[in-house]
Design a protein that fits this description.
Oligomer: heterodimer
Strand content of chain B: 15-25%
Distance between the termini of chain A: 116 Å
Number of helices of chain B: 11
Helix content of chain B: 25-40%
Radius of gyration of chain B: 26 Å
Helix content of chain A: 10-25%
Structural class of chain A: alpha+beta
Largest interface: A-B, 72 and 62 residues
Shape of chain A: globular
Number of strands of chain A: 26
Largest sheet of chain A: 8 strands, mixed
Number of strands of chain B: 17
Structural class of chain B: alpha/beta
Shape of chain B: globular
Strand content of chain A: 25-35%
């Protein structure tokens, strides 16, 4: 008997070690290590004073502890943080990360005809919701979370700049859709979502399909009419619910239903506005319907700062400062003085908002070259923004504006373990992102440019770029400058500088450069593969369908091609005034 | 004793507390009083006063006479110069970020007030031409266009200050070639927008007003139901497109109708009578002289070009005597610009009507002052130099109807918004600022050889309000 009991006991004990599959609330694929301790590092918690030498412990996707006297647990993987600084993961407060690539509108329209100002981009097909009473572009029920695709180059580029969380929404349409706040890591979109929906996004850009509204005043009229209809819809629903008998039921309308939380003030409205008059119009419109507004863009927000503060309207301030993209020939037309002023004033806006006590957060503003993100942050600091405020505008302030301050934005126990760890201060020009943690997992970062791969990329290349309307010849020059791979393009896409190209294993080459195509300038992201003296790859111009390119490396410094020498008889005929009839047929 | 002293002190300080804010807080900087001395005053309604003085106080014309005592007013010596009321331009598309909502034929729900751009440099240039008020209209792409806005040109001020107080709301109609899109082909793959004929244009307007009439009825029924305290009433859908048309029928909104041909003018008069409203102005109306009597009988005004003709087929029969003939027939005629370029020289345009048709000097000046003010419902405030009216004035260095004359100073509400001497003095400063900005780091050119993209022109100027946002942009 005891033997059997022992066996039963053994079986019971053994069964205790069987892992019963539990519903995975956190991550589907658990990495082997989920406990980390970053020791001996400078920790900037943003919640309190800077800890000169401290430890941060991550467990199960959350920050377990952070402080000067915290000891690393026994099962933690230790990361030696000597010489490193730990920041809360950076938040990009307005992006289109994870959203599907824009496809061009089916009806071709002459580029840029009519109203266009500020950072207007050519309209491309808006995302479409199912069974909507409204045309695409006027569907407030579109949810970003339905369209998110994890991974991809842009998410990778953002992470490499230290960004761990982003607010993402579609960029097309008038009612663009309801945004989602996502962590930039995860195998499925469900794992990425931190909060959804966050806000309803409105761009005051007319549709380019030729249908109503295709002008700016039409945009305002249609938005106004929809909000009035939504107010009536709410009243009709309430009346019907009270006593349905004897009353015709109001037609179901998902678009109007999606506007109700906005009318109630429960969901904020993010309005894209850069110029002073655009911001004023947006604020007037929000006031008309008592909407809770947030301004995205804010290039001239400094000029309306007092009104923004009084209306309690935060700003998602774009770091996509206007820049001069090509050089001026001596005989080129002078740019208007307004354009020159704007380029100088743009970096000063952040400091002005701080002085006027307007809450704000930074966003990348459709920047595709994240090197500009860091560079422009530094310019904002050089123009009056304090480093502390700059950091807050990337961490706790966006968390507050987007309603997640209780779970993100600082390094405090219990918050989501999103960390950006740098060598050197985050706002120093030469800082390096050493580690990025998202949801407590370490992210693979792209290696810096340099080494053999960079050597393969440097030189002069002749590219053939195809953006859908024939080949464009572009000359590309890349050279190594210290730590950075720099260069320039010239030719069919205009002349511009490449501030930061990157190379990867296997001959990958990536860079982003402003390109002028069909009269408009937009960022073009090149991603190619180099094999020997050839390269090929894809190019994405903001607002267009992806294109492709091929290229060959120019050999030794190009010998001046000798002009073709005319045949001997011709030369003789011409020089001696001989009978020119001999030239016939030559 | 001490207590009484203390109470006295307390009461004094409380009283002082009330008084002090009055003395220290100036609040809005009020415009200084101005005395324009020894100027030839073209009152427009009360003849010409040579060597007179005009006193401006609190933005209004306070006194007109000889040898006035200005008190503390700043004095402007205008000896040898002429003072004229600010020109009112009855048809303008300045300071608008968009002009046509061309996707539909009836766009009465759109408002030009939503798309104002107070930074438009054309406003400054208009001030330099003596213009002080504008009627900002929707374009002529649609049979029924959008709602207008009347503004005072207060260049440099926030946009809220531009709104002309008391101006009647208006709406733009258009007849003829533009709303039927004669000169535009549809986009590839798109159908031609209805209407394509003049009869279609009429039908569009009639159909819209029929719907508006029904819309008005549903609201009247709803209000009656409320009065009867009916249960479970849901208000009818508030339709932003039909609302303004109801206002037209109720006489609360002026109609400014772009038209050319005599037959369509008569058509619209008949249609308006059918629905019980009046057209306030016919815009362009280059064949207005043919139906001047009918226009006068209807009570409408006409706002025309002086001598433009033949730029399209429906303008072939235009004649420069149009203004004179219609004036003699009793029509209130104004001359407008419909162009940022022409707005700078409306004085010359008016003078042409004097040359062709022998209008008197006063009738000619009225074409750009009192008459357009009447057409916009602002004639109680501007349009002539009379005591009590707004100080919207311009000082000219010669008679305004002379081709050699130029504006020296322009006042709006008694404040100077353009002064030629100041402008010349500022030019050096602007050049210096530009040089400084060109040197700033963000503006320095990068390496490489191509020219920067030229700043895109906002829209072509000198057009016939015929820009269609979705169509082919004219060069």
């Amino acid at each position: 008997m005891p033997a059997i009991r022992l066996r039963i006991l053994a079986a019971l004990v053994a069964s205790a070690f069987v892992v019963i599959p539990t519903p995975n609330f956190v991550t589907a694929q658990r990495s082997a290590v989920d406990t980390y301790a970053i020791t001996n590092a400078r920790v900037v918690t943003v919640a309190g004073p800077v800890i000169d030498r401290g430890t941060v412990v991550i467990r199960d996707g959350l920050i377990a502890a952070a402080g000067a006297n915290v000891t690393a647990p026994a099962d933690a993987r230790i990361i030696d943080g000597t010489g490193l600084t730990v920041y809360p993961g950076l938040i990009d407060s307005s992006t289109a990360l994870g959203m599907p690539q824009p496809s061009p509108t089916p009806t071709p329209s002459p580029g840029g005809a009519g109203a266009g100002f500020g950072q207007l981009r050519p309209q491309t097909s808006p995302l479409s919701a199912l069974n909507s009473a409204q045309p695409p572009g006027l569907q407030p029920e579109v949810l970003a979370e339905d369209f998110i695709k994890p991974g991809g180059e842009q998410i990778e580029a953002a992470r490499n700049a230290g960004i761990t969380t982003a607010l993402t929404a579609p960029r097309q349409g008038i009612w663009m859709g309801q945004s989602a706040l996502i962590n930039l890591a995860g195998d499925t979109s469900q794992q990425m979502i931190v909060r959804s929906p966050v806000a309803l996004h409105v761009g005051f850009t007319p549709l380019r399909t030729g249908t109503y509204p295709n002008s700016l005043m039409g945009v305002f009229a249609s938005l106004r009419q929809m909000l009035l209809d939504a107010q009536r819809y709410r009243q009709a629903l309430q009346t019907y619910e009270r006593s349905p008998r004897g009353m015709r039921r109001p037609n179901q309308d998902r678009s109007l239903a999606a506007l109700l939380p906005v009318l109630d003030g429960a969901m904020p409205v993010v309005m894209y506005a850069d110029r002073e008059r655009e911001i004023a119009r947006a604020l007037d419109f929000a006031q008309e319907f008592k909407l809770r507004a947030i301004i995205a863009g804010g290039l001239e927000a400094g000029r309306v700062a007092d009104r923004l503060r009084e209306s309690k309207v935060p700003v998602l301030l774009s770091l996509n400062f206007p820049r001069r993209t090509t050089a001026a020939l001596p005989e080129a037309d002078a740019e208007p003085i307004r354009v020159l002023r704007e380029r100088v004033e743009a970096p000063k806006t952040a400091a002005k908002l701080v002085a006027a006590r307007v809450p704000f957060a930074f966003q990348s503003g459709a920047l595709t070259n994240m090197a500009d993100f860091s560079a422009n942050l530094i310019r904002a600091i050089e123009n009056g923004l304090s480093r502390d405020d700059a950091l807050r505008a990337l961490t706790i302030w966006p968390a507050q504006i987007l309603g997640v301050a209780d779970r993100l934005g600082t390094i405090e126990a219990g918050k989501i373990a999103n960390l950006t760890i740098t060598r050197g201060d985050l706002f120093d020009r030469n800082h390096r992102i050493s580690y990025v943690f998202i949801d407590g997992r370490s992210i693979d970062l792209r290696p810096e440019a340099g080494g053999a791969q960079a050597g393969a990329a440097t030189g002069t290349w002749t590219l053939n770029v195809n953006l859908g309307s024939g080949d464009i010849a572009v000359s590309l020059v890349l050279q190594q400058e210290g730590e950075r791979l720099r260069g320039s393009i010239q030719g069919g896409l205009g002349s511009s500088e490449i501030a930061n190209a990157s190379t990867g294993a296997g001959g990958d080459l990536r860079f982003t450069v402003p390109a002028t195509f069909e009269g408009q300038t937009a960022d073009a992201s090149f991603a190619g593969k180099i094999t020997g003296d050839d390269m090929q790859g894809t190019v994405n111009v903001v607002g267009r369908a992806p294109g492709s390119f091929t290229g060959t490396k120019a050999g030794a410094p190009a010998q001046p091609v000798a002009s073709p020498t005319p045949p001997a008889e011709f030369r003789a005929a011409v020089s001696s005034n001989a009978d020119l009839s001999k030239l016939k047929g030559m | 004793m001490m207590r009484r002293l203390f109470i006295h002190f307390l009461t004094c300080s409380i009283i002082a507390g009330f008084l002090l804010p009055e003395t220290f807080a100036q609040g809005r900087v009020s415009t200084p009083d101005t005395l324009i001395r020894n100027v030839t005053v073209l009152t427009v309604t009360h003849g010409t006063l040579p060597n007179a003085d005009v006193l401006i106080r609190n933005g209004k014309i306070a006194k007109v006479g000889k040898n006035l005592n200005g008190g503390n007013a700043r004095v402007i010596d205008a000896t040898g110069k002429y003072l004229m009321p600010g020109i009112v331009d009855c048809h303008s598309h300045s300071m608008l970020d968009a002009i046509n909502e061309g996707s539909l034929s009836v766009t009465s729900m759109t408002r030009m007030n939503d798309v104002l751009n107070p930074n438009d440099v054309d406003l400054y240039r208009a001030l330099a031409g003596g213009v002080t008020a504008l009627n900002l209209l929707h374009g002529s792409a649609n049979a029924i266009g959008g709602q207008n806005t009347v503004v005072k040109i207060k260049y440099g001020r926030p946009v809220e200050e531009f709104s002309f107080p008391g101006a009647m709301p208006g709406i733009k109609f258009a007849l003829g070639e533009n709303p039927k899109r004669s000169s535009f082909s549809p986009q590839p793959g798109q159908q031609r927008r209805y209407p394509a004929t003049r009869m279609g244009v009429e039908e569009v307007i009639r159909e819209a007003f029929t719907r508006a009439r029904d819309y008005k009825k549903t609201w009247d029924e709803y209000r009656a139901g409320l009065a009867r305290r009916d249960q479970n009433l849901i208000p009818p859908r508030r339709d932003l497109q039909l609302g303004p048309l109801v206002e037209v029928m109720e006489g609360k909104r002026y109609v400014h109708a772009h038209c050319y041909r005599a037959d369509e003018i008569l058509m619209l008069i008949n249609l308006a009578n059918e629905f019980g409203f009046k057209i306030k102005t016919f815009q362009h109306t280059l064949e207005g002289y043919k139906v001047a009597k009918e226009i006068a009988q209807h009570g409408a005004g006409a706002s025309i070009f002086a001598d433009n003709w033949a730029y399209k087929i429906e303008a072939y029969d235009a004649i420069p005597y149009n203004a004179a003939i219609m004036t003699r027939a009793g029509v209130n005629v104004s001359i407008n610009s419909d162009s940022d370029e022409r707005a700078r020289r409306l004085n010359i345009e008016a003078a042409k009507a004097m040359r062709y048709g022998d209008l008197s000097e006063e009738e000619t000046l009225k074409l750009i002052t009192w008459n357009p003010a009447w057409q916009l419902g602002i004639h109680d405030r501007v349009g002539s130099i009379e005591v009590g009216k707004d100080a919207d004035l311009a000082i000219w260095n010669g008679h305004p109807l002379s081709v050699y004359s130029r504006v020296e100073t322009t006042f709006v509400d008694g404040e100077i918004f353009f002064d030629r001497q100041q402008d010349l003095a500022r030019r050096a400063d602007i050049l210096k600022e530009r040089a400084q900005l060109e040197q700033a780091e963000p503006n320095r050119p990068s390496s490489g050889g191509a020219s920067p993209p030229t700043p895109r022109r906002r829209r072509p100027t000198n057009h016939d309000d015929d820009i269609w946002e979705g169509g082919i942009e004219r060069p």
